[in-house]
Every structure is written in C-alpha cells, then in structure tokens.
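Follow-up to my post from last week.
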Amino acid sequence: MSVTAPKGFRAAGVAAGLKAHGLDVALVVNDGPEAAAAGVFTTNRVKAAPVLWSQQVLRAGVVRAVVLNSGGANACTGPRGFQDTHATAERAAEALGIGAADVAICSTGLIGEPLPMDKLLLGVDATASALAEDGGPAAAEAIMTTDTRPKTTVVEGAGWRVGGMVKGAGMLAPGMATMLSVLTTDAVASAEALDAALRAATRVSFDRVDSDGCMSTNDTVLLLASGASGVAPSAAELAAAVTAACHDLAQQLVADAEGATKEVAIEVVGAASEDDAVEVGRSIARNNLVKTALFGNDPNWGRILAAVGTTAAAFEPDALDVAVNGVWVCKGGAAAEERSAVDLSGRAVTIRVDLHAGHDAATIWTNDLSHAYVHENSAYST
Amino acid sequence: MSVTAPKGFRAAGVAAGLKAHGLDVALVVNDGPEAAAAGVFTTNRVKAAPVLWSQQVLRAGVVRAVVLNSGGANACTGPRGFQDTHATAERAAEALGIGAADVAICSTGLIGEPLPMDKLLLGVDATASALAEDGGPAAAEAIMTTDTRPKTTVVEGAGWRVGGMVKGAGMLAPGMATMLSVLTTDAVASAEALDAALRAATRVSFDRVDSDGCMSTNDTVLLLASGASGVAPSAAELAAAVTAACHDLAQQLVADAEGATKEVAIEVVGAASEDDAVEVGRSIARNNLVKTALFGNDPNWGRILAAVGTTAAAFEPDALDVAVNGVWVCKGGAAAEERSAVDLSGRAVTIRVDLHAGHDAATIWTNDLSHAYVHENSAYST
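User reply:
Got it. Predicted complex:
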C-alpha cells in the first residue's frame, strides 16, 4: 500500500505525457490531523530546482503535500527551473486549498531540459482529482524512470505504521541518498523527532547504497507524519521503524539497479572506526575492476586489496583478510583458500573484508558493472 | 629506440614463458660512467613486493640495472613475494657483476599469484646474455600485458637525450603513476636533480592520466642517468625533456587503454587553484555515467555538472560553463548551444569546464567506458 498504508494519507499517480508512456505525475497528501515533516537531500552542490524549493519548505517542518514527477529532473535549468517548481507548488496548493509553502516538490529524469509545464500543471490537477486512500501504488509507479518495478514498503508499529516508496536505478550513489523517496507515518511525532529518525535511518540505509558511484542532483527523502493513529512512539521506536522502511527500500534499489546482474553486500569488519569501514566499503564498491570481475563471476581478491589500499583507513596490508561468498580467498594479505571454491553463479554476492584494526563495521551495498549498464547509460538521453 | 636511445644503456627482452606467448622479461642496464637514478612509485598502500624492493634500492640514488617482468605482479604474495624479488635482483647482479642493491625490479600482471621463479630466473639469465645497444624495443615489448602495442619515446636535448618506455592499459589511475616506466638519459645529472625533474614531470603527465579510476599496486617510474654524453643540462632543461618524455608516454597510455573508443582530455579552467582544477577533472574522469555517455556519442553535460557538484572545489553552480568538442552546451549552469551541434564521431574528445572561480587550470586525460572494457576486465583472471 506504499505511502497510503498509514492512516491520514491519500495519493494518486496519473499519466500526464511527460514520459512517452506510463504514469509520470504523483501526489501525496497528508490529511492530518498533524503535518510534521522532515527531509534529507542530496549533498551534490549542483542541486535541482525542486531540491532547492523543498529545502525551503522543510525549514518550517511542515509538509501537507508532495508533488513528484518523472520525465524530467528540472536540474541545471536556471532561474526558469525554479519558477517552474514554484508554479507547480502553487497549482497543487490551489487544488488542495492549502498554502504553496507547505508543498514539497520532487522531480527525476534527464538533467538540463526544462519541464513541459503545460503538461505538468494539467497532471497536477488530475492527481488532485484522483486522490485516494489506496492511491499509494499508483504514486509509486508514477515516479519510476529506468526502474523496472515500483518499490514500496510498509513497517508495522504498535498501533501505527510507516509506509514508503522510492525510485532510483541509476546515478545511484549517496550524498545522503540517491533517489526520490517519500515515507509516511500515522504516528504522532514532532518535526524534530521525525528529522532525528530520518537522519538515523538514511545514514545506515540509503547512504550506504553505492550502485555506480554517481551522485544525483535530485536526491530527496521526505518523511511525513499525520498523527492519525493517535499513537506517539518513543524516539527509538520511531527510528527503528523508519530505519526498517529505509533499509527495505534501499535493498529494492540495489535489486533493480540499471543493468546489474549481482547484488553485492560489502561487509567491512575489524575497522578502527565506522567511518573507516564505510570508506573501505565505498572504495571497493566504486572500483570498476572489482565490479567487472564480479560481472565475470571472478573472485578477483587482488583487485579488492588494490581498492582497499587507496583508502586512508587504519590497516596493515599484510593483515588483510578477504572472503567472497564465505570463502577466505585472502588471509594476511596473500592467497589463502582456492578461488575456484567460490561460487559466484548466483545473483547475491557477499564480500567480507577484515581490516584487523579494531571492532567497528559497516556494510555498503553495490552492484556489478555489466554490458547492460554500459548499454543503458550510453543510450539514455539520445 | 626506447630506453637505449641515450648513450650508455643496453637492454634486452626475452620470452621466458611467464605469459602464454610473447616476450615477458626485460633487462635495462646502465653502463655509466655514472649511475644516478630517481624513482616514483604508487601511493597505493597495498604495494607489490618489487615496489617495496625498488623503493629501498632508490634510497641510495643509484641504479645500475632494472629487471622487469610481465605475466605476474608479485603483489599480495606475502613474505615469499619479497624473497622472490630479492632472488631476482641477486640473479641479475650475479650475471652482470654488480651488487643486488643496485638492481631495481618491476613486475606487472595478475595480483595475488606467486611468480614462477624457475622460469623467471632463467629469463633473467637470457636477458643478460642478450643485452644490446639496440635492445630498447625488445624491452618495451616484454613489459606489455593487455597493451596492444609497445610504447616508447625519445626526446632530444642539446647533445644528450631522454629515452623511455611504458606499459599500462588497465588499473590505470594514478597515485603517482599507473604503470611501469623506465626513462633513461645520457645527461650528467645527480640523483637529486633526476628526482626533481622526475617528480615535476610525473606530476603533470602520468599523475593526470585517469583511465578507469583504479590505482595499481605496482606503479613504478624510474629515471636512470648514464652521464655518457658528458653534457650537464640545467635543471630546467632536464625537467623539460623528462616532462616531454613522460607526456608523450602518458598520451600513449590513454590511446591504448583497455577497450577504449575515446581519448578524452578534460580541461578545467577558471579554477581558484590547480588542486581544484585537478579535483574537478578527476571527478568527471571517474564518473561512469559521463564515461558511458561518451561511449554513446552523447554530449550529456548534465552528468558532467553532476560530477562537478560532488567536489569541494570553489565554484557557483549557476556560473558553470561546459564545452564539448568546442560547443558550449552549458552556460551559467543551464543549457546553451544545441547539443546536436556536438560532433562526437571521432576518437578525440575535449571537455572544457570553466569554473569562473579563478585563473588556474589543469587537464586530466581519460577514456570512455565501453562494452569492450567490461568484456576485457570481466574475463582477465579466469
């Protein structure tokens, strides 16, 4: 049920002609009684107009509606792009009888092209007319770009819920997240509590997806609370539920990444700090030679060590251990178990690196680098 | 004539069976009268045994011979790997009647496998017997791995020369360099002068090649001076000639990079500092979405801006200009000239980014990301 699983939310998705076919405009409305919200956004310094707009909206900690469109990122579009985002918020506000300053906007698609505003504004009207308490799935479908399937989640609390949707298949490496995502809850929670829960959640979920090392201009994750359940969970309960929802959605991103044939978990253990573990995991995740080796079902641990060696993390080269799908192919920085013992025929791959430098750990999720990735991304805008 | 173009050097390349076919062991000997030398090495913290050995040799500033092998990197091979390198140096020293501490070693090939020492040592004997004043081309051929052609250079000074050879086609991104290279000169120069010239040269040549973002464990560039010309150039003359030689070899690396269909110069201008320009250029060079777009002949400047946005360089997003092959497709952070005006049908591509933040500049050389790169690197070790 996506974002409409919690009480107090309606949503819709319509086809407005922004894409050649399929739904492309979504609307999520928080009917309250409360309207607290939090958001995290790309740390890319080249930010799309809707990101700049939504960051302003979130400053007040109140969001009553979110308009999302695929078929265009509205990024690198100059002052006109920001005016277009403003006009979109005004149109939704008018249709809903609320203020435009309470309407967040998310866009995704090609960078550098202005949105066809005539089509988008009619699409906003259509979504407002189509709002429904079971509209979550349509909204999740309308935000897809190269995604092959909609991605949604529901996490049950004690008398309250978190629902969510996400899109993202390429340009998929976090500055904070990597995609558009709207999470909803009918819990009673302040904007500050939502912000704390959302940052805790994204830090260990979306932030640790690194499919292709490329950070987007449009990454946005919003968390909206209606309070409609009447239940006020503790900060820990809220954070746990939001983290579970983000984790589920993040795994769906990795599972549907452009052209991927492998879903790879890089578990770095024995690190002197969590930051070290993340740095090492990300270095491996972004190494094209590791990624092509995985595509070729090759447990090439030498490339993994070469990637580890480029980091500033604490470790001694002759103390590094590496396991691929449970086989310790490298111990003490040199060959150990036979690499032929590694079974890479399946889609799931786990790389475990023990730095032997401490007790911290982190997992980064990534994909292989395949012919299909090259094909899809060499033909996207032309 | 490669490394034997300057007076005072002999070289050889033989087939010792380390690779399935072709030459695979090279020897370069400095017959003097002088034997000053300098070296720069990978900054990867996971360093191959021959790198650790050669760093020790270079500490004294004297190199009388260099043994190079393809067919195995001798990286991540533990204490045995270092013993093997030591034994190789001893064998060459014995054959040449010099000390092992004056013999540098370079290895390249698969990481993590021990070298077949019986074959290698017989190969060292064979190269010592085959040493010739015109042996440079054979040496250049013997260090090839996935290179499709040997890469050599000669730069003429006033009565003296610099000669050189390089190998490298993958794992091609600098910590300092990205490959094995031996440069020779018959100039009279101290080890300190050679070191200064070599560091100045690699900083603006090999260090600015970033083919695939992956830093090797074995990168080594050596500069040997025989003094046989009797000419002592100024520091500036020496640096200029060594820089010209390194630049020529670096361009040959980019031209022969694994699976590449484009040779891309990323010129970053208007930077607040040279470091900023290098950071921006490298971020673009390492962005897989930019690289696949170039493979698809797509002047996708939005992806270029997204890559620039991930850096800490000084710039304002709405002041960025981007030209692809001379067409300013982006001005002021938004679309400008028609992207259809860009001709990407050729192999040479120039991306020019103006940060409008100062007066410094730097150029990074890279390649596209092609099906052939994925194919070659998914099938390398298996």
